Amino acid sequence: MVFPTNPQIGAGSVDKFAGAYASGTRSLTVRREGSRLLVQDGTQAPREITTSDLNSWEFHDGCGISYRFVLPPDGPGAMLTILAPGASATQWHRTGY
After folding, report:
1. H or E segment to which residue 41 belongs
2. Bridge-partner residues for 96, per DSSP?
């Protein structure tokens, strides 16, 4: 699903979430392309995620999957929790940029 352009999504607002994330042996990448934030794992096309409130750090895709980012106040680590409807949450940690 392609969402309407969100002019709030830009380098200063979402690049802090970008990078490579891992969960066990699985990996995915979060990146920004223009005013779109994308999540891509090795097996699927990129999924666009969006939010109505950039201060919440909680995003969703067109399938109702939620993406919750947590950034530590004192270091480069980042965590991502992905929750699909009717499924258990998966925890991801950033491994690089």
Report:
1. strand 36-41
2. 20
Scanning the structure block, which residue is given the tokens 């998966």? 90
Q: Identify whether the C-beta of residue 59 lies closer than 8 Å to the C-beta of residue 70.
A: no
Q: 21: burial class by Cβ within 10 Å (0-12, 13-18, 19+)?
A: buried
Please, how many CA atoms are within 13 Å of residue 1, restricted to the half-sphere of its CB? Answer: 10
Q: Which residues pair with 68 in a beta bridge?
A: 58, 81
Amino acid letter for position 84:
A
Strand order across the beta sheet in which 66-70 lies: 47-49, 36-41, 26-33, 19-23, 90-96, 79-83, 66-70, 58-60
Which two structure tokens, joined as six digits, stand for 60?
């969703």
Query: Two tokens at 39?
Result: 């999540």
Structure confidence by residue, pLDDT tens digits, 43-97? 888 999 999 898 889 999 999 999 999 998 876 789 999 999 998 899 999 998 8
